[in-house]
Design brief:
The chain is of the alpha/beta class and 215 residues long. The protein has eight helices and seven strands; from the N terminus they run βαβααβαβααβββαα. Strand 5 and strand 6 form a beta hairpin.
Length: 215
C-alpha cells in the first residue's frame, strides 16, 4: 500500500478488544507520528468538564457524545484540508461512522481497516468488567453483544470497500492473522480459520482465506 497517498486508518473491534491499549502495535511505520482520535477518551474528558456544572447526570452522556462528535468532525475536516493521514478508533456497528468513511473517500483518501477481535462475546464482557475495576468505563452486556455481532456483519459485507484489511487476534497481544489488499489475500497464518469469529463471523473472508491456503 502506498502511504504517500493520504490514508484513513480505521482501528476497530468489539468492546474490550484492547484497541486503545495496543493501537501503536497496529499502525504502519508511516503512522508513527499520527495521533489517533479516541472517541472514549474525548468523551471522558468532556464529562470531567461538565461534572459539577449544573448538568443533569442523565444528560451528561448525551452532551458529551455530541461534544465528542463535533470535535471529531472538526479534526477530520482539518486532516482532509491538509491531506494528512488520519487514524480513527471506532466500532463499525454504528451507521454514522460509515458516513465518516465516505467523507474521506470522496476527498480522495484510501482507507485501511485494522480489525482487532477476541474469540468470544464472553471474552469481551470479561475484559470490560476488568477495565471497570481499574477505573475504565462500563458497557452494558447487551451493547457488547450487539457491537460484537454487528461489527462482524458489517466487515463481512463491506470489506471490499477498503484498500487494505488486516485482521488481528486480540487474545494476548495483537497478532496479524489475515491481510487483504485490493480484495486479494496477501497473507494468512495457518491458524486463521481456527478462529470462529473469522470462520463463522466473516464467511466471505474465510472463503478467500481457504482458497489462498489451498493455492
Amino acid at each position: 500500500m502506498d502511504y504517500f497517498k493520504p490514508t484513513l486508518l480505521i482501528i476497530s473491534g468489539p468492546n474490550g478488544a484492547g484497541k486503545s491499549t495496543h493501537i501503536r502495535m497496529m499502525l504502519p511505520p508511516d503512522f508513527d507520528h499520527v495521533v489517533s482520535f479516541d472517541r472514549d477518551k474525548a468523551r471522558t474528558e468532556f464529562a470531567k468538564q461538565l461534572t459539577g456544572h449544573e448538568v443533569n447526570t442523565k444528560d451528561i452522556l448525551l452532551k458529551t457524545t455530541r461534544m465528542m462528535e463535533d470535535l471529531l468532525v472538526s479534526e477530520m475536516k482539518k486532516a482532509i484540508r491538509s491531506r494528512s493521514h488520519f487514524v480513527l478508533e471506532t466500532p463499525l456497528s454504528h451507521p454514522d461512522y460509515w458516513g465518516y468513511i465516505d467523507l474521506f473517500e470522496t476527498n480522495g483518501y484510501q482507507v485501511q481497516l485494522n480489525y482487532l477481535c477476541l474469540d468470544t462475546i464472553g471474552d469481551c464482557k470479561s475484559r470490560v468488567a476488568r477495565r471497570v475495576l481499574q477505573g475504565g468505563h462500563h458497557v452494558e452486556p447487551n451493547t457488547i453483544r450487539g457491537v460484537y455481532e454487528k461489527n462482524l456483519e458489517h466487515v463481512n459485507e463491506y470489506f471490499r470497500t477498503f484498500t487494505v484489511v488486516e485482521l488481528y487476534d486480540g487474545m494476548k497481544v495483537p497478532t496479524l492473522l489475515v491481510r487483504i489488499e485490493n480484495n486479494k489475500v496477501t497473507d494468512a497464518v495457518d491458524d486463521a480459520l481456527k478462529k470462529q469469529w473469522i470462520k463463522r463471523g466473516l464467511p466471505s473472508i474465510a472463503q478467500m482465506v481457504k482458497t489462498y491456503k489451498e493455492q
